[in-house]
């Protein structure tokens, strides 16, 4: 896994948050655990899911990626204004973010 630091369009970030969290009560509860200034963009179109977590907050945030059918990813400190790239294979599914 590698860290990618880029500026992503706001519309793409909003679409990713909606797509990654739509339709499940568990996702809404988990997503509420981190500040709303932390956004996600998910690409689950292939065998390997790809997730970008961007910290748009004015401060660092410590969070982990919560997965269904797979072990959760490690806690990570997202520095102010940074983006971290994560990926995992099937059958893992993105379930949201949780504070660490």
Question: How would you describe what is shown here?
Answer:
The structure is a single chain. The chain is of the alpha+beta class and 100 residues long. It has a single domain, classed as Immunoglobulin-like (Sandwich), CATH 2.60.40. Helix content is 19%, strand content 39%. It has 2 helices and 6 strands. Strands 1-2-5 form a 3-stranded antiparallel β-sheet. The longest helix is centred in the N-terminal third of the chain and has 12 residues, at 10-21. It is globular. The two termini are 20 Å apart.
What's the arrangement of strands in the largest beta sheet?
1-2-5
Q: Estimate the mean pLDDT confidence.
A: 78
Give me the CATH architecture, please.
Sandwich
Main sheet record: 3 strands, antiparallel
Number of strands: 6
Structural class: alpha+beta
Low-confidence stretches: 1-32
Q: Report the sheet-strand fraction.
A: 35-45%
Reading off the top of the CATH hierarchy, the class is best stated as Mainly Beta
The H/E string reads HHEEEEEE
CATH topology type: Immunoglobulin-like
Count of discrete alpha- or pi-helical segments spanning 4 or more residues: 2
């Amino acid at each position: 896994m590698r860290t990618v630091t880029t500026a992503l369009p706001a519309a793409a970030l909003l679409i990713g948050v909606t797509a990654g969290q739509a339709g499940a009560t568990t996702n809404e509860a988990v997503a509420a655990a981190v500040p709303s200034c932390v956004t996600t963009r998910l690409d689950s179109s292939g065998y390997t899911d790809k997730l970008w977590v961007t910290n748009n907050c004015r401060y660092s945030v410590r969070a982990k990626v919560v997965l269904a059918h797979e072990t959760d990813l490690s806690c990570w400190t997202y520095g102010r204004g940074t983006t971290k790239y994560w990926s995992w294979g099937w059958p893992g599914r993105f379930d949201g973010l949780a504070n660490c």
